[in-house]
Amino acid sequence: MIRYALTRLGLLVLGLAVASVLIFASLRVLPGDVGQLIAGAEATPAQVAAVRASLGLDAPLWAQYLDWIGGLLRGDLGSSLVTGTPVAAELVDKARVTVPLAALSLTIALLIGIPLGVLSALGRRRIGGTALSVAAQALAAVPVVWAGLMLVVVFSVWLGWLPPQGFPRSGWSDPAAALRALILPALTIGVVEGALLLRFVRSATLQAIGQDYVRAAAAKGLTRTRALLAHGLPNVGLSVVTVLGLQIAGIIVGAVVIEQLFTLPGVGRMLVSDVASRDLPKVQGELLALTGFVLVVGFVVDLAHRLIDPRQREAA
């Protein structure tokens, strides 16, 4: 197990290294010049060149990359070219919105996907099970923006229960108001991701129902439902753990869009704003932090799968 963990950790570090190169290179081909943006539209070429020199943007690309990597190894994600604020400090500040949003969205997706997926599989020959399956198919195909707009119309415009946009200026000093502001965005992501998870859990449950050990348990006197709960669900759980990494990555991507839609001051909205202003060091740090988070989640899921599955433990 230790050797496996070290191997996966090495792949994690390699993945971060490759991601850093791709992020750095891709941002350099974007149109626009941050030196021109900072100097102003009326600045002369000499003034723009002076700004670029003061920011270190006139150095060779390889030197800029090594300087960035050197800062990363010291735990420094860099500073904003526009405001001069450390990237790490701004990430921590914006994560106070994005992390609770992602956690609440994942909780909603799990509450929808797991129990309803099992019920849909158990009732596959009944109207209720078929209806759940059809509803999941439809919701999984819904664009997350459209789902958010529909939820705003229902819960904000028609019923007036929840705020349509925004986040309290006081932040989490008023937990009730902050939580109310996150309910609609989290529902938007959680419902769509929950529908995807429901389909996956349904498929995994149907496969478990057809396994010999479930049939043998049913032949010994257990009902099909009890046989599945006692012997099939542990294997379904392994499949769910495997797909959770993809679900979390999908939630992070969805948060970038949803924070724009609901005007939430999170990491996703900050990232879109920084891309528009060509704040390259800040965008680099943000993208690498998000990539690292997704890779770490995958690493943890791999280890959890290895620890939970007795077949893999025996093989190790």
Distance between the termini: 6 Å
Number of strands: 0
Kindly report the average pLDDT value.
Answer: 81
* Most strands sheet: none
Order of helices and strands: HHHHHHHHHHHHH
Number of helices: 13
Rg from alpha-carbon coordinates:
24 Å
Q: What overall form do the CA principal axes indicate?
A: globular
The fraction of residues in strands falls at under 5%
| Percent range of helical residues | over 70%
Derived from helix and strand composition plus strand pairing, the structural class reads mainly alpha
Low-confidence stretches: none
What features would you describe in this structure?
With 316 residues, the chain is an all-alpha fold. 78% of the residues lie in helices and 0% in strands. It is built from 13 helices and no strands. The longest helix has 38 residues. The model has no long low-confidence stretch (mean pLDDT 81).
In short:
The chain is mostly helical.
Comma- or semicolon-separated keywords:
single chain, 316 residues, mainly alpha, 13 helices, globular
Layout of helices and strands:
Layout: H1 2-28, H2 34-39, H3 45-55, H4 61-73, H5 87-122, H6 127-140, H7 144-158, H8 175-209, H9 212-219, H10 224-261, H11 267-276, H12 280-308, H13 310-315
Helix pairs in contact: 1-12, 5-6, 5-8, 5-10, 6-8, 7-8, 7-10, 8-10, 9-10, 10-11, 10-12, 11-12
